[in-house]
Amino acid sequence: MGSAPPAFIGAEEVEKHLPRASLLLPALEAALGNFSSGPAGGVVQPLRTVLAVPGHGGYLGVMPAYSAADDALTTKLVTFYEHLKDSPAPSHQATVLLFDPRNGSLKAVLDGSVITAKRTAAVSAIATKLLMPAFAEVLCILGAGVQAYSHYEILTELFTFKEVRIWNRSKEKAEKFASSVHGPVRVCSSAQEAVVGADVIVTVTMAAEPILSGAWVKPGAHINAVGACRPNWRELDDELMKNCFLFVDSKEAALTESGDVILSGAEIFAELGEVLKGTKPALPEKTTVFKSLGLAVEDAVAAKFVYDAWSAAN
Ligand SMILES: NC(=O)C1=CN([C@@H]2O[C@H](COP(=O)(O)OP(=O)(O)OC[C@H]3O[C@@H](n4cnc5c(N)ncnc54)[C@H](O)[C@@H]3O)[C@@H](O)[C@H]2O)C=CC1
Ligand SMILES: O=C(O)C1=NCCCC1
């Protein structure tokens, strides 16, 4: 007898079984700690393969991982495109394949876009909890796309800010963001206006040149730097990179993929997983940057969560 055909779990079903990114927090915290524990942590994850699509300004990323603690075996396939002016397609599209680790059978094909949006924001929330200054009052989001929404949702669910500000390259998109989310958001006309005085800053743009300058950043602020995932792309300038304590999800990935890290020559202080394990301090009183690139094990944990919830309901 052959194995059952794989389930297809589309975006709506993923959303239904993962209504809030915060549901992933315990599993993601454990996974980040395991990832930073080397082979003893039971996470098997090579550096992702990212191949350019010549002539189309696009990239295809292949992200396999196995997490022994979750007994989750997945690979995510993600495409991201720089210029989509005349296309209705989102800039990032993803699919996660979930396998049975016991025999390699494909159990499910899951929409990966919702998973990517939520797990990335959840990891930024973990970094924020550890690294933001005490009494943080002002949240600033630079960018108004998919990740801006997921970051806004989890950061305003977990923390209480007196003010939320947004800036986007095209103001219309920032205004649409401000009128769609549930709480008050101030639309700013420049990145500088949004950043000055902010305690927590999130950069979620497709920029390839710095959009955040260290000169604007309040000493002690925490920055989640989520965009700029190519070795020649930047969101943060050298002044910020050189004058912060730099935390990353993966040292290997940061030194291979992050233009902000590679081109600035900034020294990495710790992986987030090391802070979660208690082997490195968090330093919330310092100016901190969490450079996020996205780990395949985060997708494994999130896909397993969705699949288990879906299975229980079907
Ligand atoms: N670290 C991680 O785990 C992940 C990181 N990302 C990255 O996060 C960033 C945001 O992703 P999404 O929200 O899905 O993209 P999106 O396309 O939905 O939104 C991107 C935003 O950036 C703005 N933008 C585009 N080009 C710009 C430029 N040159 N300068 C300033 N702003 C510009 C757009 O107006 C848009 O509001 C991307 O860089 C993406 O690659 C995405 C997924 C996971
Ligand atoms: O981790 C991910 O997923 C991604 N990271 C960088 C940009 C593409 C998607």
From TrEMBL:
Where is the protein found, in the record's own terms? Cytoplasm
- GO biological process: any one? thyroid hormone metabolic process
Any one GO MF annotation of this record = thiomorpholine-carboxylate dehydrogenase activity
Per its record, the protein catalyses: (S)-cystathionine ketimine + NADH + 2 H(+) = (3R,5S)-2,3,5,6,7-pentahydro-1,4-thiazepine-3,5-dicarboxylate + NAD(+); L-proline + NAD(+) = 1-pyrroline-2-carboxylate + NADH + H(+); L-pipecolate + NADP(+) = Delta(1)-piperideine-2-carboxylate + NADPH + H(+); (S)-cystathionine ketimine + NADPH + 2 H(+) = (3R,5S)-2,3,5,6,7-pentahydro-1,4-thiazepine-3,5-dicarboxylate + NADP(+)
State its Enzyme Commission number(s): 1.5.1.1, 1.5.1.25
- Subunit notes for this chain? Homodimer. Binds the thyroid hormone triiodothyronine (T3); T3 binding inhibits enzymatic activity.
- What's this protein's name? Ketimine reductase mu-crystallin
Q: Which UniProt keywords apply?
A: Cytoplasm, NAD, NADP, Oxidoreductase
User: Which GO cellular component terms, listed alphabetically, does the Swiss-Prot or TrEMBL entry include?
Assistant: cytoplasm
- Alphabetical list of InterPro entries matching this protein: NAD(P)-bd_dom_sf (IPR036291), ODC_Mu_crystall (IPR003462), ODC_N (IPR023401)
Any Pfam family matching the protein:
OCD_Mu_crystall
- Give the Gene3D superfamilies listed for this entry: NAD(P)-binding Rossmann-like Domain, ornithine cyclodeaminase, domain 1
Instruction: Say which species the protein is native to.
Output: Pipra filicauda
